[in-house]
Every structure is written in C-alpha cells, then in structure tokens.
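Protocol step 6 of 9: fold each sequence in the batch and record its structure tokens directly after the sequence line. For illustration, a two-sequence batch is reproduced in full.

Sequence one:
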Amino acid sequence: MLARRRSDLAVAALLTVWAALPLLLLAWAWRHGDVLTGSDGALPGGDQLYYLSLARESGAHVLFGDRFDLGPVDRVGFNPVYLASGLAARVGLDPRAALWLWKPVAALVLAGGFAAYVRGFRLGRAGTAAALALALAYFSPLLPVLDWAGVLDPFQRFLALLVSGELMPAWQLWGYTHAALALGAMAGAAVFAERALSAADRAARRRAVAATAGLGALVALLHPWQGATLALMLAGAAAWEAGDPSPAAAPARERLRSVLAVLVPLAAIAAVLVYLLVLSQTDPHWEADGRQSEAPPFGVGYLLLGFGPLAALAALGVPRHPDGPRERLLLLWPVAAFAVYLAVSNSRFHAFQGMSLPLAILAVRGWRRVRLPRMAGVLAVAAVTLPGLAYEIDTLRRSVALDRNPYYLRPAEARALAHLQDRRVTGGVLAPASIGMAVPARTGRSTWVGHFAWTPDYAARHDQAEALFSGRMPAGAAVALVRATGARFLLSDCGDRPDLTPALRPLRPAVRRFGCATVYELPAPAR
C-alpha cells in the first residue's frame, strides 16, 4: 500500500511539473514591464481569462453570470472550483495564483483516480505503468510528423489538434484544471460504480453508491460531457447486469439490487445535467454559448489520425466474454463517450476527454496478445507520448509568438485596467476583443465584446469594435455604435490605435491617457 501511494505521488509530482511548464515558458518569453494576465492555455481564445472572471463573480456572489455583454447580469451558474478561487482572492490571494494553485490539486486527483482505475485490472507492474502512461499522455505521433513536415494547413492542424489534444488528459492541466479534476473524479466514480454493482455486503454497497453519486455529480458539474458519458456507462452496466443470461450470473434478486444501486448515482448526475440543460434553453447567454460553440462532427480522417495508433491496439485487447461490472464498464466507456460526441453539438470534441483511459488498458492487453519483446513495448509507449508532449510545448510557443492570445498586458494597458477597476462609477466597457477578454477579470466590469463563446453575436461585435478602434468607422457611425452599446467607458489598447477624441466629440468624453492605452469616460446618462 505504501509503495502504491509513493508511486501515485511520484506521478502526481511529474504531472505538477508538466502543469507548471506553461508558466515557466511564459516567464521565459516575458518582456520587461509586461504583466501576465493568467492565461496559460496552448491555444488562442482567452478561456483562462473567462475562468478568472467566473472566479471573481463567484467570490463576490457565489453564483456567476455572463460579463461579456452589457445587458443585465443574470447570476445563475455555479462552479465549486471557481467559487473556492474567488473566495481565496477576496481574502488577499492574487486571483491568478488562486487558479494556478489548482494545478497540483488537479494533478493529484488525476494521478490518483487513473491509478486506482488501472490497478483494478491487474496488469502487473510493467503493464500498469504502460497503461498509466498511455492513459495520461497519449497523443497521436502522426500529427507532429505531418505538421512539422508542412503537410497540414493551419485549419487542418487546428482540427487535428482538437482530436489529439482532447485525448490527452495531461494537456488539461494547461489552463483547464477543472477538466483534469473532472477526469480524475470520473475514474474514481467508475471504481466505486463497479463496487456498487458487485458488492455483496450491504454497507459496502451503500458506501460505494454514495461515493459514485457524489463523484458523478461533481463530474457533471465540472464537465458535463463526462457527466453524460458516466451516466450512459452506469445505465448500460445496469441493463447488462439485469439481462445477463450467462450461467455464472448472480441470482436474480442480487442482480436487481445491483440495478437499483445504480439509480441513486444516475439521479444525482441527471439532476446536474438537467440544471445545465435548463440554463442552456432559458438563459440567453447560456443559449448563445451553446450556439456559438457548435461544432460539426469531424471527418473520418481526423478521427483516424487522432485515435488510430491507440485504437488499433485497443481493438486487439477487447475481451471475448466480458464478465462482471468492471469489464463491462471498461467496454462501455468509449462507446458511451462516442455516443455523447455524436449526440451533442456544443463543443462535441470534449466528449473525447478520458477515452484514453479505457483504451490504454485495452491496448496493453492487445500488446500482450501480439507477444512482442518488452523493449519494443517501451519504445511504443515513448513513441505515442513523448512527441506529443514536445508538440504541445511547440504549440504554446507558436501561440505566444503569434500574440493572438492575451498572455501579457503592456504596462500601459495594466494601468488603464486598474483605473477602470478603481473608478467608483458604474458602467460597462467597450474595447477591442483582444483586451476586452481581460476586462471582467481585471476590473469586475462587463464588456461589450470579449470571449468568443459568451459574447452574443461575437463575430459581428468583434468586427465593429475593430473598425471603431482602428479609426476605419466614420464619426457618425462611431457615435451611433457607442450609444447603441450603452457603454460608459471605451478602452483603447496598445495596438497602434488612433485618437478617438475627434470622432467621439458629440459624446463629450473625458479622456485619460496611460501611454499607449487610453480610457474614454462618457458622462452619466440623463435620468
């Protein structure tokens, strides 16, 4: 037992180092005077600035609303991770650190949950190590080879990266710690679900049912795609158990108890999923997020590129006669995840997260059936993990070089945002999307355009804001746009912007300059 704990802690320590790597890379690329925004994801988009805004909202109000619009803020969302971060920030911790401190926690949960699940299949020391490495860090080596060879155009690379990246749980530690927590909790829920379905002792079954329900609800709240996958796994395992025709099946009464034991976790998961579904259908901002995050199914080529190397071996490891809840849940996991991928349209690729765990176990079994030398197995594991780790580092390097993600603020921009935070008058902000992403997190104010998914009509607003702040919009249209948004402040960033004072003269703005950044404050509207 002690050796297992040490092993889990060692894996968690390695994952923590990996999780901290983006911060080290961003510090290495730091220019004197720049300010880290808190964004540490490898892809552009500013998701981490959105999470910082959720933390700020949750710390102040428990529930959070959409700050990427200037309409009323309906606080209807809840997330325990961002609530804890927001409360920590309120008592004096730097808000960015309040999110970054989840990295070691998520690494420990991810390592512990995955290790507990893998050990249940008794693969031996070498098999367990190989399965755990594949489950945590699998990344198709085909993508780095094709991209570094110049075969893929940027759009093809992005689509291929979505498939391969989502299959790599360790990547979630780069800016998506809530997803890593959900994956670790999901693996733990699967362990307890097997116990709930197979335990002979009533007290043990009750404990397993409670643990499955609690972890399942947490998974659904943190990442609903995995919550839906877990619900389908439980329902499928219960149906399989109830209709088991084999002579070795448990008595009918015992199987009925197992089926009934699954109902409690299913109800807990369903309650959270229904809550989120109601929000997506009734709240305009949640509905806009669902609409703007819609993604069509990937082409077969992208799926083969991402899944191919691991799925080929996993197919060889599928048992001919899967007996017992553990084996059935193992087989149901990838089937349920793919069903969620096909059924939903909102960021459907998130359903791939966690699939590497069951596929890794099946792949280790498949490798053993091939009966190749152990050293060949070591090289195979290295081939489908190490190039992917290097590729993710290169992806972050490219994103920082492109300067499309707000990893840094110029000193003038940071001072302008601090001014907006300190002003004791109410009102939202109109700014270019590039800095608008940071407005809610840094100031607590709403912004007219910011995050691509949570800003209503994002594409149109992005273009209008760019036309305004670049000086390409006629003065009359500029005044009309500012009035239509209802913004109290305009924030011009350091992106070589012209002076907007002449165009905004009919609005009588008070102008405050902070070097290359400018804040235009409009008079309070007449009562």
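Sequence two, same batch, same settings:
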Amino acid sequence: MEFDYIIVGAGSAGCLLANRLTESGKHTVCLLEAGPMDRNPFIHIPAGFTKTVLDEKLNWLYTTEPCWGTNGRSIPTPRGRVLGGSSSINGLVYSRGSKEDFNSWAQLGNIGWGYDDLLPCFRKIENYKSTESQYRSKRKKDFLYRGTNGELTITDLLWRDPLCEAFISAAQSFGMPRNEDYNGSTQEGVSYVQRTTRGRFRVSSAGAFLKPIKKRNNLYIKSDVLVTKIIIKNNNAIGVSFKNFSQNGPEKALFSKREVVVSCGAINSPQLLQVSGIGPGNLLKSKGIEVVQHLTGVGENLRDHYATRLTGRAKNVETINELSRGRKLLGQMVKYCLGQRSILELGPTLVYCFWHSNPNVRNNDLQITFTPASYAKGQQAELDKEPGFSITTWPQRPESSGWVRIKSSDPFEKPIIQPNYLSSEQDQRVLLSGIKLSRKIMRSPAMSKFYDYEVYPGDHITSDEDLLSMARDRSTTTYHLIGTCRMAKLQSDASAVVDHKLRVYGISNLRVIDASIMPMMPSANVNAAVMAIAEKGAQLILGVDH
C-alpha cells in the first residue's frame, strides 16, 4: 500500500488537492477521510444544514473551553466529518475576502501569497453564474476578477423577500453602497449572498472536485478511517498509521513515495501533528509523546469570527419562521421537489454587509448579515414560532487568539479548543460598533413597515457595558476557525509552523494545506480561501509556475 501522495482529510482542501494531483495521471494519490461518504440527503439540500450541524454521524461536534469572552460558556463548534468536510455542512456562502487580507499575508514575509498571486487560484476553481442583469451590463469589468470555467459552481441568491429588500434599503440609508459582487473589484457594501449551489442543491468540495474524478485509476479514496499518526523516520514523513474510525480496529499503515499532505482543518491538523510528535516540546512530553520536532506554534494562533445575533419581531410580512412549520412546511417541500421557489433552497444567511466600525477605518472591518428568520433562545437550528428576523455582526479580522492542544496521546480523544473570544479590546470595540449599527438599521424608517420590536437584546439594554455583557452571554462561533499551523518565517515568528511553500519546518516531505495555515483571518467566510489555498498548494507540490 504505497502511493506517491497521501492526503489526510477529504474536506474543502483535500478534495481539490486529490483532483489536481491525479490530473496528469502520473501520480498515485490516497485520500483518507475519518467520516463517511456524502450520501446523506440533508447534505445536498441547502436547508439541510439545520440537521447536519447537529448530526454526530457527519460532524465532530466539538465544543470550546469556557472563557471570559463567553461568560464561562462552552460554545458548540461543529466541524464536518464526512466526504467534503465542512463544505458539506456549512452555510453555503461563497466569500473570498478583501485584497488587503491577502496582501497582508505577503507583507508578513509569505512570498507568493498576495492578492495578485491568489486571484488566478480563485478564478481557476470558480464557475460563477451571475444572474444580475444590471451587474452584467454596468460592471462587466468585474468579470476580470471572476472565474467562469472552474468546477465549483457559484450562483447569486435568487430569493427576493420584502424583509431583505427593506434591510438592504436601510443599510443604504446609512451610507453602504449596493454591491452586486463583493468578490469582484471591491468588497465594501451590501448585497445578497453568493452561494455554492447548482440549481436546488449544495455544491461541496466533494461534489465539485471529487465526484467527477472518482473513477481515475490513480486515485484511491478511503472513508471512515482516522489517521492516528504520521510516520516519521529521520525527520522525513514516509507514511501514516490509521484505524477504522467507527470500530477502532487494528492499526494499519500506508506509505508515501513523495509526500504526506495534512488537510484536516484548524482543529484536527494541529492535533495530528501533536500526537505525531510535532509541536510544543513541553506539551508533548507531558502527554508521554516523543518529541520529533519542537515547534511551539503548532496549535497556537487559533482565531475565529465571534458573532452576536440580534433578533427582531416582524409584522405585516411572512417570515421563514412560519413557513417552516406544519402544512406550510409541507407545501415548501412540495415546491422544492417541483423546482419552485422554496425555503429548502436557503442557507442561514441571505444578505451580507461589509462596512466600517468607524469613519477612520480605511478597510472595512465589520461584517453584518441578515436573515428573515430567528432562532429560539439558546438553540443552534430551531426557529422561533413567531415572525422574526436576525441581524448578526462580528469583527472581520479578530485579534483575539487561542489554541488547540491535545488532552492525551490518544488520537481519538477530542482536543482542548480555546479561542479566547473577545480577549482583545479592539475586538470588543469593533463588535460594539457592529451591535449599535445593527440596532440602528433594525429601527430605521426603511424597516418600519415590518419592524415590530426588538426581541434581543431588548430596549432595556443601552450601555456599552451591558451590550458587551450581552455579547458574552449570547454570541457564538461562525465556524470560521483558522491559523493553528501558521504560515510564517520561523526566524522571525515563533508561532510559525509551515513556510511559504506550506512545508512543515524541520520535517521533509510533509505539508499542511488547509485553513490552519492562514497567518491572519480573511474578512470572509473562509471556505473560498481554503479552496484557493489548496489550488496554490497543488501548484507548489507539482512545481507549476503560474
């Protein structure tokens, strides 16, 4: 059982890597995934995220450690454990990030990772299907920024709703321009979301990059296996050990002639490195693990978008809350099956805003989203019974950072996840600004026809101190975890884990290619950037000069 390349993790990055590394037919690739094949129908129905986000058969179902920023709460943190990884259970939003995000990566010393370097990678993977006739006629130049021949289908949201239109008008009244393509020449403004969908169905990384090539003779896909260790000999990665995930059977091994590529995400990638002896020496020794390579940064620099959701009670309009119950839900199911407009086509977010926390901020640092639905108190996926809507906000580039650390040498034991939400005063200031702006939008004249009253936090919460306390009480992850195998120059950054070619420092023939290598958080949902990283990573592996 020997292959040229072994890819650990069939998620957003791993599926794309498997496609690119087998494309020429010259190399054999083994793709390993801890979860099952992506046959569950809820994966493919956009609204099915309400089921998959809680499904232990498709999900790692992690939780964070309590911290000050959560008022001592543990936050549920779903991560995909299925073919396609988190791209099979996420909210389907396609958002790249701004030019400044990637240019900052390059400015930190990561050669070849600026916006102009990554733009060809984004364009190569995209099959963007714009439906905005106005955009096509007035902003044709923006198609220079978009790809239309890639495998990943991206579509504009077709749903039009009175509440969404009112929210967009309200955002414009506060100075936000209408932007039909936040993935084009500029990110700033308000618009309907772009999504990874084709027709009525989700397009995951597995659906886009793996399904069309499953019959390639040089690709071997093995699901339901947990890689327990990277096999390292003389500081050279030569293979992996693995066990059946559900049965925890005997340990087996696979060997690589060229490279082992770790693509397990911001939680599982550092965990695998640590149990393999790569990481902070004191931590590894305390767990009885032999130190193969001392790298203090493995598991550090964990960052996430920490979001506060405000909810309002709606009037004079029907919201998703009512459409998701009883006979109305049955009617929506029939419409979906007939190819008609239905709430089953929708993800958790419909409208996006990218804006400034204050007028002195040059690059937008605030994100606000809108959905004509509201969740029951304390619930991840259960909607209110009464008409409602949600406005959610978070700092785009959080400075708060935490860590992922193993609890023991057992690869089956879940690690310690501590994001240290709101530990940065800057994050607190930006979040407060977003909350205040969201409340103003909610109560603006443009929304007055449909706005009844504020459910949460409620009119009695007015001071900065009380708003911040409310944020600690009710904010939650947006599932955008990054940074735990940081790309940086080791000579100048003690948190560095991989170099600019994504090679793990001190270990030959071992790379990490996923969200964990991001030096800083992009101002976006991270799935699109992860795929661009994988495209770039494949080129680095194959030595392609683009």
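Proceed to step 7 once all outputs are recorded. Observation for sequence two: The longest strand covers residues 252-262.
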